[in-house]
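Repro:
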Amino acid sequence: MLSRLTRHQVLAVCALPVVALFAVAGLAPLPFSVAEPGMTADVLGKNRGTPVITVSGAPTRKTSGQLRMTTIVATGPETRISLGEVIGAWFDTDRAVMPRDAVYPSGDDPGEIERYNTAQMKESQDDAVSAALGYLKLDPDDVDVKLRLADVGGPSAGLLFSLGIIDKLGAGDLTGGRTIAGTGTITPGGEVGAVGGVPLKTQAARRDGATVFLVPKAECADAATELPKGLRLVPVTTLKGAVDALRALADGKGEVPHC
């Protein structure tokens, strides 16, 4: 003979599958990566003892200040990310949860990821040189620019590469002695594109001494999220606009865009 369950007993029995479901979800791997602020590098200086920018065929000028490209570091495609880790990172301003496909668009194979990132960086460097020499109206057949940055992939340093070349070859100082950081892709025609991971890059920039951060205008809202104290955002859409903004900051004259 079956006895009748009380209300509390019914609730307890019904809750068991729900608890079990959450327990399984908490242990199951999810299609996300967890990212955090990565390294930055001054494109006007050296990285691991090697100059980032070298120029031959044209005179260069001595630069002041720094132009720092920024990165993020993400968990690998093979890393199992649980629901608990996702929730923890969600509430941590030093980390971000990103779709794994957005971080690794080329797939899960480590070799393919490395080849993809290397190709993206090479294309970004070529575009950065073209954009900078085009801005300066210099003949690429006479001026040879080499860019070297170890262990960094992807296209997001394009804007800073172009600015570094212009600062070395141009007539005026772009930094005004400041530490400037930023991110953004670049086209050969000088258009600046969005990159992702900007809130983490602003943290890396401020950690390494930057007081100004150049951000693609489309990502102003993201960059303003958890913006570190003492870091000024300057939105840009073109290489010319970025140069004009930096010169206005250096000279203390003219209008500087803001988010």
